[in-house]
């Protein structure tokens, strides 16, 4: 098998490793491209292309993550990973585990780990690499890697709520939720929200937060029903879509440009957290990005017009 063909066969795995370590689609794609350049330039064929390429993409990702941590500390407001529309690496026997490992909740927990802990945890717990291969990838002994995994697992387990794996049930609940709030049905929205639901947004200080920073079922339901109904009336599109292996949606303007994405955390038949990504720097891979400020102004004007019409009739 030629190098290029071999690499393309492994590309989905390499991207999936890099994305889980970095939490960025753009940076993961760059890491995979750099891995290819190094592989193409190598003169000695590796014993195992999978082990070699996985080691290279892991080392590159660890280096990138060290510098990315500095940028994240300077980030304005909450920081979320770039939304992932679909994971290119698939294993039918472990689909639920893989989906859980790429969820927003899991990626945010991974942020608690050091870059080295994060890489070792991803290789072992998500992709089930053996410790000799992990040790080769990160430049540590197998025994040291075992200790890193134990420490990382302890950090992850301490903060991880267990989300049920019934994806069909979650999808049905999400569709009911999106139908209710696009129709302005406050009661329908509220009954699907946990009492202490949170709505948080990553705008990076570069876009409006829309409905970010709200807490509690009553508050969140009223804000959503009022704002989103006006958004839909001006031609806005709410497109339900899997996001990081979870129910979510892409919000587009009337021309189909991306305004923001939503990801829903669901537990015990209720929505616990709504995470909004409106930072334009993290949406380019989803599609052409809209002028979110202009859309919000138009939405608010439509809401004022509706209110004025209601009060004068």
Automatic annotation (TrEMBL):
Superkingdom as given in the UniProt entry: Bacteria
Span of domain RNA polymerase sigma-70 region: 7-67
Domain (RNA polymerase sigma factor 70 region 4 type) ranges: 105-156
Transcription listed as a keyword: yes
Coiled-coil stretches noted in the UniProt entry, renumbered to this chain: none
Keywords: Sigma factor, Transcription, Transcription regulation
Pfam families: Sigma70_r2, Sigma70_r4_2
InterPro entries reported in the protein's UniProt record: ECF_Sigma-70_Domain, NTF2-like_dom_sf, RNA_pol_sigma-70_dom, RNA_pol_sigma-70_ECF, RNA_pol_sigma70_r2, RNA_pol_sigma70_r4_t2, RNA_pol_sigma_r2, RNA_pol_sigma_r3/r4-like
Family: Belongs to the sigma-70 factor family. ECF subfamily.
Subunit structure: Interacts transiently with the RNA polymerase catalytic core formed by RpoA, RpoB, RpoC and RpoZ (2 alpha, 1 beta, 1 beta' and 1 omega subunit) to form the RNA polymerase holoenzyme that can initiate transcription.
Protein name: RNA polymerase sigma-70 factor
